[in-house]
Amino acid sequence: MTLLRLAERGLYCEVGDFYVDPWQPVERAVITHGHGDHARWGSERYLSSGEGAGVLRTRLGTSATIRAVDYGEGIDVNGVRVSLHPAGHILGSAQVRVEHRGEVWVASGDYKTQPDPTCTPFELVRCHTFITESTFGLPIYRWSPDHEVFEAIRAWWRTNRQHGRASLLFGYALGKAQRLLAGLADADIGPVYTHGAVERLNRDYRRGGVRLVDTRYASEMPRGHDFAGSLIVAPPSAAGSLWVRRFGAISTGFASGWMRVRGARRRRAVDRGFVLSDHVDWPSLLATVEATGAERVWVTHGTREPLVRWLTERGVDARAVASQWKGEEDSDPVEVPGEEITA
Amino acid sequence: MRRFARLYAAIDETTRTNEKVDAMVEYFRSADPADAAWVVWFLSGGRPKRLIPVRRLAAWAMEEASVPEWLFSECYDAVGDLAEAMSLLLPDGESTIDLPLHRWITERLLPLATRSEEDQRASVVQSWRDLGGTERFIWNKLITGGFRVGVSQQLVVRALAKATGVDEGVIAHRLSGSWVPRAEAFTSLSASETSDADVSRPYPFFLAYPLEEDVESLGSATEWQAEWKWDGIRAQVIRREGRTFIWSRGDELVTERFPEIAAAADFLPDGTVLDGEIMPWKDGKPLAFAQLQRRIGRKSLGGSILSEVPVVLVAYDLLELAGRDVRSEPLARRRAMLHDVIAASRSAAFIPSPIVPLASWEDAHTAYANARERCAEGLMLKRMESAYGVGRRKGGWWKWKVQPFTVDAVMIYAQAGHGRRASLNTDYTFAVWDDGVLVPFAKAYSGLTDEEIHELDRWIRANTVEKFGPVRHVKPVHVFELGFEGIQASTRHKSGVAVRFPRILRWRTDKRPEDADTIATLRALL
Predict the structure, then answer these.
(1) Count of A-B CB contacts under 8 Å
(2) Same domain? A235 vs A289
(3) To the nearest whole angstrom, how far is the Cα of A309 from the nearest Cα of chain B?
């Protein structure tokens, strides 16, 4: 039985008549998480996890109709049982479990299995069909434990402070930035400033009970303020902008899974790359797919073909499905037309 | 090895010249000379010969990482660098032993050359297990012979000068020629006694800056000497203690490749160093650079190639006379001495670089306009009073190159680049029209801004018609103005022409593909 299929406007459940993370406005949208490629503006009604509702509201505006459900709480949508389960990607991120007549499908959205103090940890959900992301679907992508990455960030910050420089650290405004701010909560090296896009979402995180280091909005500081020795967290789009000039002498860093590859860091022209991702790495991806017990696996975005082939060679019914989700982009997560379709 | 890895990371992590130099200074001040000697060698572009075929290495890495070949090549494509792909795929190393760099090189790396395949494998796999992170990446770069660091020779010289307190010029001199990576060599770098020049050692080449302003900005024309800018091989011919050495600018000893010049050097007095351009030259005229390339590629030089493509040294400077370093003398004086030395040698293999008379800048403009006819790339302008400097310095010498040939061409293939450009499509193939069909004639990699590269990359991904391995056949839509330095008839290229140094000058978003040039336009340039 096909519970979900790829339709023009997104991943569609025909029996329940709802979409998961549609890329065009629909009547009923179940949202896995608040990133721009998953939570799009214009649908009539949204379903979100309770943990993620605040962020979603910030993203979609006050006029959006959002219904929040707790993780694990099942609701009935036209005879289909829908429940949301933690995906461990960012605050409030969810996997969507869809059950009908004993058949269970899970759409993962974006997820990671590593612990992250800013969100509820990933929950494994057994299913018949698992729809997975594959942003880092190659075995070269393996993450180090968080504490090692944060130790490197702290060392970099300290060195910069000694040289009288500000440390400008780029990370996506939603999720990565807060994970950085949480990981540096006890760093005690210098003041921490943020870009407006980050600060806006910090409020939702703090309201959700996530402990972040104290921050100040950089643009509020008076003209000529000395930023030497401080850390500034900003979205990658701020790189090279006029906004950056106010910080004087800086060293730049970028926190992303892509930083695992040297060429990607050099292309970004940042001084330091920190390998920190909110997506599963290859070993966790394979382990998760296996643990779900799924007989069928759809791979929606990222490096799809290698994962599909790997699974197929191991007897799993796997295929690549062309979605318009982008996962963690090498560049900024802007909306771009879908990639070429490969079955 | 760990210290070397840290130095590598420090250099690699910054784009600031001063920080790179500081990192090197710190290393050179405190490192074991035996290690530092190797570091100097590596930073100066020295590489061990490739010791093991990369295929074999890749096969061992696949097995060690339990990754099938198809997945390995997917990873290689994504990384764009074999040594890095292998180090990312291999299981995390333990990094338990910390052998000094020179022992890694002399005990583990160099012996690989004479080992059996089984022993090689055991040794390499063991190193992978012993090394972690950056160290393993560097190690892979070393065994694949592809190690490179982002510092220029000039920066290495500056760092060594700072670390040793010896003058930059002396360091540069001591480094040029063949550097033997031994502790004694490193220690003697910092020796205060400076008359130690090895008999073969060339001087660092003085390089000209491209002229970007109008020539008039250089002041009075009468203070300048103008020469043709030749397109040959820059070289120093050294005659000392009855021996001859010819060094190319790549610090390569090329004496045997140019027997005509080597033979003529026998007639130079001891303690003479000439700087000039090795040029293919026949019947009193230069031949095309492509002719010279025919010679360069050969291992042995038969009589026929020597008579078809004879070479001369078009000499433009004299650096040493009677064993005395004359580089600080003014150019006008060096030039006069050069004429005397060449005249005394009575050899046709040395030609003083012709001087273009320069009464006013107008003469320069006229000569510049005729440069291409003279088989020259433009003009060299050298201040009469200038000393022969070290490296590329602004002020004394300028090169004023003629504009390249240009053609409007359509992009038809694209491919991902390597290293910094891995997973971005940055290698493009261009075509011109031939009777309604687009015929590829040039590949170009450079000339676009980062923004244009990203924009084009997105377009390429969305407009790929077909993929052949890594090569994407794209819709023929975008027109680019390409520049190139020379053009030759070629039987090896489908288009029948081969162009030299093709590069992108501009993205012609104002042109449609049908507006691009035809093969006839190119042939007319032959």
Answers:
(1) 70
(2) no
(3) 9
